[in-house]
Amino acid sequence: MNIVLFGPPGAGKGTQAKELTKHYNIPHISTGDILRANVREGTNLGIKAKEYMDKGELVPDEVLIGIIRDRLQLSDCKDGYMLDGYPRTLPQAEALKEILENINKPLEVVLNIDVPDKELIDRLSGRRTCSCGESYHLMFNPPLDEGTCGACGGKLYQRDDDREDVVRQRLEIYAAKTMPLIDYYNNRGILVNIDGTGSVEDVFKQIRDVLDPYRK
Ligand code: AMP
Questions:
Q1: What is the dihedral of CA 31, 33, 39, 40, to 10 degrees?
Q2: Where are the alpha helices (DSSP H) in 5-106?
Q3: Of 16, 139, 154, 181, which residue is most buried, by most CB within 10 angstroms?
Q4: What is the model's pLDDT at position 216?
Q5: Does residue 54 contact residue 160 with C-beta atoms inside 8 Å?
Q6: Could you state, in order of their start, the residue ranges of all structural domains in the chain?
């Protein structure tokens, strides 16, 4: 099953991907998670990427294309993959097409998770994250113990790019650079719209209804 999870920051791609990857047993490939891991480890890539990420800007295409090219070659992608946060620009989408042709794993479905901007701003500015990958929301999904991750006991933090001013910048960049990909994939007949405003379970069910027929 070869999938892209598409949608603005805060649409719930990461939350859904975590469930979907278990359900369908395919790897969740989040370019944001890969970049954040590099920032934490202080790699050259992380040092370079952080400058862009903290401002809510996109990391240059050639960096991301290299990351995805390497990641998709790994053996865990043999039965499929779930991309989250990639592609975000037309050159990234074109590069992906070529990479996938070379490894003979063409995209089957692009799920576009749709949520209005006002709700995205509320969701992102209340989000609290743990380095283990869990995330919480101060109002909608608060941790049992304030400031502490219920899964691993780690300390929760607010991502620098979840501050409201940076969130607005991310949404503007999404509208300008990433939204055109909706037409790009729609024209190829593989885009499916998902209403992302319901509960996590509602959205999960909508996605399963779309993906189940692609199960091998
Ligand atoms: P995310 O966790 O997907 O919201 O990504 C967090 C940040 O990482 C973004 O705001 C960008 O700065 C950077 N990033 C992640 N994926 C990409 C991508 N495909 N292209 C460019 N920058 C990216």
A1: -160
A2: 13-24, 31-41, 44-54, 61-72, 90-103
A3: 16
A4: 73
A5: yes
A6: 2-26+79-116+171-214
pLDDT at 53: 94
Nearest CA to ligand 1 atom 5: 32
Query: pLDDT at position 49, please?
Result: 97
The low-confidence residues of the chain, meaning pLDDT below 50, are: none
**From the CA of 59, how far away is ligand 1's center (Å)?**
7
Out of 82, 86, 88, mutate this one to test ligand 1's pocket (max ligand atoms within 8 Å of CB): namely 88
State the CATH architecture for 2-26+79-116+171-214: 3-Layer(aba) Sandwich (3.40)
Is 159 catalytic? The answer is yes
Q: Token pair of 160, please?
A: 């620098």
CA of 138 to the centre of ligand 1 (A): 23
Contact 33/139 with Cβ under 8 angstroms? no
The pTM for the full model equals 0.90
Predicted confidence at residue 90, as pLDDT, reads 97
